[in-house]
Amino acid sequence: MKLILSLIALLLASSVSNAAPDTRCFEMRVYYAAEGKLDALHKRFRDHTCKLFEKHGMTNLGYFVPIGDNPERKLVYFLAYPSLEARNASWKAFMADPDWKKAYAASEVAGKLVAKADSVYLSATDYSPLAKAENIGNRVFELRTYTAESGRLPNLNARFRDHTVKLFTKHGITNLPYWTPMADQKGAVNPPVADTLLYLLAHASQDAAKASFGNFGKDADWQAARKASEEKAGGSLTTKGGVKSAFLVPTDYSSVK
Question: Which residue, among 203, 196, 170, has the nearest Cα to 182 in the 3D structure?
Protein backbone atom coordinates (compact mmCIF):
# COMPACT_ATOMS: atom_id res chain seq x y z
CA MET A 1 0.00 0.00 0.00
CA LYS A 2 1.37 3.38 -0.94
CA LEU A 3 1.95 5.86 1.82
CA ILE A 4 1.85 9.30 0.42
CA LEU A 5 4.26 11.55 1.96
CA SER A 6 6.02 13.96 3.54
CA LEU A 7 9.49 16.45 7.47
CA ILE A 8 13.18 16.60 7.73
CA ALA A 9 9.75 17.99 6.06
CA LEU A 10 9.19 15.51 2.67
CA LEU A 11 8.46 12.69 0.85
CA LEU A 12 6.43 10.00 -0.86
CA ALA A 13 6.44 6.78 1.03
CA SER A 14 5.92 4.05 -1.48
CA SER A 15 5.65 1.32 1.12
CA VAL A 16 6.35 0.65 4.76
CA SER A 17 9.21 -1.57 3.65
CA ASN A 18 11.17 -1.05 0.46
CA ALA A 19 11.55 -3.87 -2.03
CA ALA A 20 15.24 -2.95 -2.18
CA PRO A 21 17.25 -0.97 0.37
CA ASP A 22 17.67 2.73 -0.30
CA THR A 23 21.46 3.06 -0.39
CA ARG A 24 21.60 6.82 -0.96
CA CYS A 25 23.39 9.22 1.34
CA PHE A 26 21.03 11.68 3.00
CA GLU A 27 21.90 14.86 4.80
CA MET A 28 19.95 16.84 7.37
CA ARG A 29 21.12 20.43 7.56
CA VAL A 30 19.98 22.90 10.22
CA TYR A 31 20.62 26.59 9.63
CA TYR A 32 20.22 29.24 12.32
CA ALA A 33 19.64 32.55 10.56
CA ALA A 34 21.26 35.72 11.83
CA GLU A 35 18.98 38.14 13.65
CA GLY A 36 16.45 39.58 11.21
CA LYS A 37 17.78 37.52 8.28
CA LEU A 38 15.48 34.49 8.08
CA ASP A 39 13.31 35.98 5.32
CA ALA A 40 16.41 36.85 3.31
CA LEU A 41 17.71 33.31 3.79
CA HIS A 42 14.41 31.91 2.50
CA LYS A 43 14.62 34.21 -0.51
CA ARG A 44 18.11 32.99 -1.36
CA PHE A 45 16.98 29.37 -1.23
CA ARG A 46 13.81 30.14 -3.19
CA ASP A 47 15.51 32.15 -5.92
CA HIS A 48 18.93 30.54 -6.20
CA THR A 49 20.12 27.80 -3.84
CA CYS A 50 17.56 25.07 -4.56
CA LYS A 51 18.04 25.38 -8.32
CA LEU A 52 21.83 25.30 -7.98
CA PHE A 53 21.66 22.26 -5.71
CA GLU A 54 19.74 20.42 -8.43
CA LYS A 55 22.16 21.66 -11.09
CA HIS A 56 24.98 19.97 -9.18
CA GLY A 57 23.27 16.63 -8.67
CA MET A 58 21.70 17.13 -5.25
CA THR A 59 18.08 16.09 -4.65
CA ASN A 60 16.04 18.62 -2.67
CA LEU A 61 13.74 16.62 -0.41
CA GLY A 62 12.15 19.08 1.98
CA TYR A 63 12.61 22.45 3.66
CA PHE A 64 10.93 23.14 7.00
CA VAL A 65 10.62 25.61 9.84
CA PRO A 66 9.26 24.93 13.32
CA ILE A 67 5.55 25.44 13.88
CA GLY A 68 4.77 28.55 15.90
CA ASP A 69 7.52 30.61 17.47
CA ASN A 70 10.97 30.18 15.97
CA PRO A 71 13.26 32.12 18.32
CA GLU A 72 16.38 30.42 16.97
CA ARG A 73 15.33 31.28 13.39
CA LYS A 74 15.81 27.65 12.31
CA LEU A 75 15.62 26.27 8.81
CA VAL A 76 15.73 22.45 8.66
CA TYR A 77 16.23 20.77 5.32
CA PHE A 78 17.02 17.39 3.79
CA LEU A 79 19.06 16.48 0.72
CA ALA A 80 19.81 13.16 -0.99
CA TYR A 81 22.85 12.05 -2.98
CA PRO A 82 23.86 8.81 -4.71
CA SER A 83 26.69 8.38 -2.18
CA LEU A 84 28.81 10.29 0.32
CA GLU A 85 31.50 10.67 -2.33
CA ALA A 86 28.93 12.15 -4.72
CA ARG A 87 27.79 14.48 -1.95
CA ASN A 88 31.30 15.85 -1.47
CA ALA A 89 31.81 16.29 -5.23
CA SER A 90 28.46 18.08 -5.61
CA TRP A 91 29.17 20.51 -2.80
CA LYS A 92 32.63 21.27 -4.18
CA ALA A 93 31.13 22.07 -7.59
CA PHE A 94 28.30 24.09 -6.02
CA MET A 95 30.65 26.23 -3.94
CA ALA A 96 32.79 26.94 -7.03
CA ASP A 97 29.81 27.85 -9.24
CA PRO A 98 29.97 31.52 -10.37
CA ASP A 99 26.17 31.77 -10.12
CA TRP A 100 26.32 30.72 -6.46
CA LYS A 101 29.17 33.09 -5.69
CA LYS A 102 27.21 35.95 -7.27
CA ALA A 103 23.97 35.10 -5.42
CA TYR A 104 25.82 34.64 -2.14
CA ALA A 105 27.64 37.97 -2.41
CA ALA A 106 24.50 39.88 -3.41
CA SER A 107 22.45 38.39 -0.57
CA GLU A 108 25.03 39.28 2.08
CA VAL A 109 25.68 42.92 1.20
CA ALA A 110 23.91 43.90 4.43
CA GLY A 111 25.46 41.12 6.52
CA LYS A 112 25.71 37.36 6.87
CA LEU A 113 22.46 35.42 6.61
CA VAL A 114 23.51 32.31 8.58
CA ALA A 115 24.82 32.56 12.13
CA LYS A 116 25.39 28.82 12.56
CA ALA A 117 24.92 25.62 10.55
CA ASP A 118 24.80 21.97 11.64
CA SER A 119 24.83 18.90 9.44
CA VAL A 120 24.55 15.14 9.81
CA TYR A 121 24.87 12.43 7.13
CA LEU A 122 22.21 9.74 7.26
CA SER A 123 21.52 6.25 5.95
CA ALA A 124 18.01 4.89 5.45
CA THR A 125 17.02 1.98 7.66
CA ASP A 126 16.00 -1.26 5.96
CA TYR A 127 12.36 -0.61 6.92
CA SER A 128 12.25 3.03 5.79
CA PRO A 129 9.72 4.12 3.18
CA LEU A 130 11.32 5.43 0.02
CA ALA A 131 11.99 9.18 0.22
CA LYS A 132 10.68 11.23 -2.69
CA ALA A 133 9.99 14.94 -3.01
CA GLU A 134 6.21 15.14 -3.43
CA ASN A 135 3.45 17.62 -2.64
CA ILE A 136 0.96 15.64 -0.58
CA GLY A 137 -1.32 18.43 0.55
CA ASN A 138 -1.91 20.23 3.81
CA ARG A 139 0.01 18.32 6.48
CA VAL A 140 2.14 19.00 9.49
CA PHE A 141 5.36 17.08 9.86
CA GLU A 142 7.03 15.72 12.92
CA LEU A 143 10.75 15.11 13.27
CA ARG A 144 11.43 12.57 16.01
CA THR A 145 14.88 11.77 17.35
CA TYR A 146 15.53 8.77 19.57
CA THR A 147 18.76 8.19 21.47
CA ALA A 148 19.10 4.47 22.20
CA GLU A 149 20.82 3.04 25.23
CA SER A 150 24.36 1.99 24.33
CA GLY A 151 24.26 -1.12 22.14
CA ARG A 152 20.46 -1.18 21.91
CA LEU A 153 19.95 0.59 18.57
CA PRO A 154 19.55 -2.80 16.81
CA ASN A 155 16.80 -3.67 19.31
CA LEU A 156 15.10 -0.34 18.68
CA ASN A 157 15.27 -0.81 14.92
CA ALA A 158 13.87 -4.34 15.28
CA ARG A 159 10.91 -3.02 17.26
CA PHE A 160 10.18 -0.37 14.64
CA ARG A 161 10.62 -2.86 11.79
CA ASP A 162 8.44 -5.58 13.30
CA HIS A 163 5.82 -3.57 15.16
CA THR A 164 5.95 0.21 15.48
CA VAL A 165 5.65 1.32 11.84
CA LYS A 166 2.65 -0.97 11.29
CA LEU A 167 0.96 0.31 14.44
CA PHE A 168 1.62 3.92 13.45
CA THR A 169 -0.21 3.24 10.19
CA LYS A 170 -3.03 1.54 12.08
CA HIS A 171 -3.54 4.72 14.11
CA GLY A 172 -3.49 7.14 11.18
CA ILE A 173 0.14 8.23 11.31
CA THR A 174 1.98 8.46 7.99
CA ASN A 175 5.45 6.94 8.11
CA LEU A 176 8.09 8.91 6.23
CA PRO A 177 11.83 8.14 6.05
CA TYR A 178 13.65 6.52 8.95
CA TRP A 179 17.38 7.18 9.22
CA THR A 180 20.41 6.44 11.33
CA PRO A 181 23.51 8.65 11.17
CA MET A 182 26.40 7.38 9.11
CA ALA A 183 29.44 6.34 11.15
CA ASP A 184 32.49 8.38 12.14
CA GLN A 185 31.07 11.87 11.90
CA LYS A 186 32.34 14.91 13.73
CA GLY A 187 30.44 18.07 14.47
CA ALA A 188 27.05 16.52 13.85
CA VAL A 189 23.81 17.89 15.24
CA ASN A 190 22.76 16.90 18.74
CA PRO A 191 22.17 14.31 20.08
CA PRO A 192 25.48 12.52 19.54
CA VAL A 193 25.72 10.44 16.38
CA ALA A 194 26.07 7.04 18.02
CA ASP A 195 22.92 5.07 18.80
CA THR A 196 20.52 7.57 17.21
CA LEU A 197 17.38 7.04 15.14
CA LEU A 198 15.81 9.99 13.31
CA TYR A 199 12.53 9.82 11.43
CA LEU A 200 9.76 11.90 9.94
CA LEU A 201 6.01 11.49 10.28
CA ALA A 202 3.09 13.33 8.70
CA HIS A 203 -0.20 14.19 10.41
CA ALA A 204 -3.37 16.00 9.43
CA SER A 205 -2.73 18.43 12.31
CA GLN A 206 -1.04 18.65 15.69
CA ASP A 207 -4.33 17.70 17.33
CA ALA A 208 -4.53 14.65 15.06
CA ALA A 209 -0.98 13.70 16.05
CA LYS A 210 -1.88 13.94 19.73
CA ALA A 211 -4.95 11.76 19.25
CA SER A 212 -3.07 9.20 17.16
CA PHE A 213 -0.25 8.85 19.66
CA GLY A 214 -2.76 8.60 22.50
CA ASN A 215 -4.46 5.65 20.79
CA PHE A 216 -1.12 4.13 19.82
CA GLY A 217 0.10 4.24 23.42
CA LYS A 218 -3.03 2.43 24.64
CA ASP A 219 -2.89 -0.24 21.93
CA ALA A 220 -2.50 -3.70 23.49
CA ASP A 221 -0.28 -4.83 20.59
CA TRP A 222 2.08 -1.90 21.20
CA GLN A 223 2.18 -2.53 24.94
CA ALA A 224 3.02 -6.20 24.33
CA ALA A 225 5.71 -5.35 21.76
CA ARG A 226 7.30 -2.77 24.04
CA LYS A 227 7.31 -5.14 27.02
CA ALA A 228 8.80 -8.02 25.01
CA SER A 229 11.49 -5.83 23.40
CA GLU A 230 12.60 -4.39 26.73
CA GLU A 231 12.69 -7.78 28.41
CA LYS A 232 14.86 -9.09 25.57
CA ALA A 233 17.23 -6.11 25.76
CA GLY A 234 17.38 -6.05 29.56
CA GLY A 235 15.80 -2.62 29.97
CA SER A 236 14.55 0.46 28.17
CA LEU A 237 15.68 0.78 24.56
CA THR A 238 16.03 4.57 24.82
CA THR A 239 17.91 6.74 27.27
CA LYS A 240 16.10 8.82 29.86
CA GLY A 241 14.78 11.87 28.03
CA GLY A 242 16.06 10.34 24.81
CA VAL A 243 12.88 10.83 22.76
CA LYS A 244 12.61 14.28 21.17
CA SER A 245 9.86 15.64 18.94
CA ALA A 246 9.64 18.78 16.83
CA PHE A 247 6.64 19.79 14.70
CA LEU A 248 7.52 21.39 11.39
CA VAL A 249 5.78 23.08 8.49
CA PRO A 250 7.18 23.20 4.95
CA THR A 251 8.42 26.42 3.42
CA ASP A 252 6.72 27.74 0.29
CA TYR A 253 9.67 26.52 -1.81
CA SER A 254 9.77 23.02 -0.32
CA SER A 255 9.01 20.17 -2.70
CA VAL A 256 7.31 18.35 0.14
CA LYS A 257 4.19 20.05 1.38
Answer: 196
Whole-angstrom distance, CA of residue 19 vs CA of residue 69? 40
**Residue 186, amino acid:** K
CA distance 154 to 220: 23
Q: What are the backbone angles phi and psi of residue 30, rounded to the nearest 5°?
A: -125, 115
Phi, psi of 192, rounded to the nearest 5 degrees? -55, 155
Asked whether the beta carbons of 185 and 118 are under 8 A apart, the reply is: no
Burial 158-168 (b: 16+ CB within 10 A, else e): bbbbebbbbbb
* pLDDT tens, the chain, 257 aa long: 333 333 433 443 333 444 578 999 999 999 999 999 999 999 999 999 999 999 999 999 999 999 999 999 999 999 999 999 999 999 999 999 999 999 999 999 999 999 999 999 999 999 999 887 776 667 899 999 999 999 999 999 999 999 999 999 999 999 999 999 998 765 455 555 678 999 999 999 999 999 999 999 999 999 999 999 999 999 999 999 999 999 999 999 998 77
CA distances for 202 relative to 8, 9, 30, 138, 155, angstroms: 11, 9, 19, 10, 24
Q: Which amino acid is at 97?
A: D
CB 14 within 8 A of CB 149: no
Domain map of the chain by residue range?
A: 25-250
What stretch of H or E contains 196? Answer: strand 196-203
* Residue 128 DSSP code: P
Q: Which phi and psi angles does 196 have, rounded to 5°?
A: -120, 140
Q: What's the CATH class of domain 25-250?
A: alpha beta
